[in-house]
Amino acid sequence: MSNRRIARLNEQMKREISEILRTEVRDPRIGLPTVTSVEVTPDLWSAKVFVRPDPTDGELEDPDHEGLIEGLSQAAPFVRRQLGKSLTLRRVPELRFQPDRAIERGLRIERILREVLPERGEEAEGDEPAEGLSSGARDRPGE
Question: What is the CATH architecture of 3-116?
Answer without folding.
Answer: 2-Layer Sandwich (3.30)
